[in-house]
Write a structure and sequence with these properties.
Layout (H helix, E strand, L loop, with lengths): L6 H11 L10 H8 L3 H13 L3 E3 L5 E3 L1 H14 L2 H15 L2 E8 L2 E8 L14 E3 L4 H10 L14 H7 L2 E4 L6 E9 L5 E10 L5 H19 L1
Antiparallel strand pairs: 1-2, 3-4, 3-8, 4-5, 6-7, 7-8
């Protein structure tokens, strides 16, 4: 049976999806360029999106994302782990290792940085919350693939551990896999029923991730993951 689609809904969602990281506002012309929709279509759909709070409009006519998206984003975050639960964990991990600590979840064929505390070192791995990264590269991505399945779950992109090995050892390590200058170590956090909630991760410059550092990061991550899972 073919998958049902509602063209008007998809067009409206394409307008919201036209916004990317760093976009404060988009003009009607820019939305039309990014979506391929006629301006008249965008104006008609934008009226409904504004009414339900998914878009707002500035005095100059440019569009911004609306407050409803923030509300749903907060609900999405709470469905995994609340900020109150994860923030102290990330802070402790940063203090214990001096590196950046993050919590990733899977969203389709990507992973999303749901929570993050960046290292205080001058040279560090800096990333913003909400950033989307590939699943098939990097410790957190391959760990999520290993536990949740999908294309790429059976082999590391750089010849690293495959899904079965990651599940057996309970962690994933990447050394310059997604970015040649970045290393990362990731462990799973589980819900009470045994389903994976996400990947708890420590990342930093690959030159600092020697064997003793990786072992120290793993010990800290697994201790915190057990605390969160319980």
């Amino acid at each position: 049976m073919p998958q049902e689609r509602v063209e008007a809904v998809e067009r409206a969602l394409s307008i919201v999806s036209a916004f990317s990281d760093g976009d404060q506002a988009l003009s009607l012309a820019e939305i039309a360029r990014r979506t391929g929709l006629y301006k008249s279509t965008i104006l008609r759909l934008a009226g409904s999106l504004k009414r339900f709070g998914y878009l707002s409009q500035q005095a100059d006519g440019a569009y911004r994302l609306g407050p409803s998206l923030w509300r749903f984003g907060a609900m999405y975050r709470r469905a995994f782990l609340s900020a109150e639960a994860i923030a102290p964990v990330l802070l402790r991990l940063r203090e214990a290792t001096g590196e950046t600590a993050s919590f990733y979840v899977r969203d389709g064929d990507e992973r999303v940085c749901l929570y993050r505390v960046n290292s205080e070192r001058p040279l560090r791995h800096h990333l913003d919350e909400g950033a989307r990264l590939p699943l098939d590269r990097g410790a957190a991505g391959r760990l999520l693939l290993a536990y949740e399945g999908g294309a790429g779950a059976h082999a590391g992109a750089d010849g690293g551990a495959d899904g079965e090995e990651i599940r057996a050892q309970g962690h994933a390590i990447s050394l310059g896999e997604r970015d040649p200058e970045i290393a990362a170590v990731a462990v799973p956090v589980f819900a009470a029923g045994g389903d994976i909630l996400g990947a708890l991760t420590i990342s930093g410059l690959v030159t600092r991730f020697d064997a003793p550092t990786v072992a120290r990061c793993l010990a800290a991550l697994k201790a915190e993951a057990r605390r969160l899972s319980s």
